[in-house]
Amino acid sequence: MHIVPVILCGGAGTRLWPLSRKSLPKQLLRLEKHSLLQETVLRCQGEDFAAPILVCADEYEHLVRDQLAEIGCTAFRIVVERIARNTAPAAAMAALLVAEVPDALMLVMPSDHFIRDSDAFAAAVAAGAPAARDGALVAFGIEPTSPHTGYGYLHAGAALPGHPGCFRADRFVEKPDARSAREFLLAGDFYWNSGIFLFSPRIFLAELAAFRPDMATACQESFAAAKQTSDRLEPGKEAYKAIQGDSIDYAVMEHTGRAVLVPVRMGWSDVGTWEALWEQADKDGSGNAVKGDVFALETVDSYLHSEGKLLVTLGVQNLVVVVTEDAVLVASREHSERVKEVVARLKVDERTEVANHCLCFRPWGWFKSLDRGDRFRVKEIMVKPGAQLSLQKHWHRSEHWTVVHGVAVVTCGEKRFLLNENESTFIPAGTVHRLENPGKLPLHVIEVQSGAYLEEDDIVRLADSYGRADGQ
User: Fold this and answer.
1) Cα–Cα distances in angstroms (integers) from residue 197 to residues 42, 252, 390, in the given order
2) Residue 439: which domain range?
3) What pLDDT digit, counting tens, does each position of 249-271 carry?
């Protein structure tokens, strides 16, 4: 088989706040050994699969590349979206790439789902592949274990002749009410819609043109105007912006006569809530899922997660407690679905904790906020080997840099010089400057900012290796 994994790296994951935020959504979080994105890529390796295509927003491209490098994935292509247009246009852009390969199939899947049984996943893909080669648009349905109202459902119709394990998908149902969900569970022939699809790119593009000709045409125009390299495609901005976005389900699957369902039981979860994460996690003898520095006494059936600080619980049950450096969430497990309401309220109040962690990743490395007060801010900066920050200046703040590990090359006005461990320098406000790491080890610098305005948008970039605009 020649199957190209197409991994959709969108989604904000607001229901997993405060771990998941706009700057680091849930697919990029390391909830276990690997992130959900890394697990998705690792699941699709082997002789049956080609190099993956990943579709992501431009702000996550450097994080996606870093995470691929961590797991040794060196062959891939990234489709970079400057603006999100839902899953159907994302799949169409990938399909236009895959269609260049004769007889290829594409396996489209989210990057933020959990699958415990990779063998069952592989078996389901193998079962659906012959049908996809015969022109079917295959959807993978999860055998339901409860009357869940947070998932869409698929109904299995008649068996597909000549293709064991495949059925006509004769009905797509959006998230049902509780009564309908119970009826679906009792019926035994309804399945949760996993959002995973397998089909020929040519067939998908033809069906998209039949049901959404406006979208198909705009995708073709955007693809023709795309900027391409060997491992990157950036769709033509104006044509892509004009697309009226929609999901694969709405744009194609609910209208096509080619929809086929492959049922599978593979320990699947969309990890959409803290409750779902608790259900999937390993637990201690008291039913607690614990991660980090946690001391739980007389605590049962709870999800307890600390990102550094000691978390102590006593005499509680059925709780979610998540501690990060700048926020603490305490909620009952049964209300964990409503965390997105909290995030919406915080967004209205313009709380920075909605979007950013104390640790903020950049293409050149990361910075971490250590302290902040009136007219000062302290950061730790890590610069990757061989990387450099932009050539820049700030109007309202000065900066003091102290190297704590590694060697830095500093540009300050007309001067360019080395800064070794335990050495420091001063960057006056308004002075053009740059920080570089010429070494083979990470460079760590403590930066102390002082001035009347200390936000990240006080920056004028004169040159940048990563094509960023000011304020990014």
Assistant:
1) 18, 12, 41
2) 359-463
3) 999 999 999 999 999 999 999 99
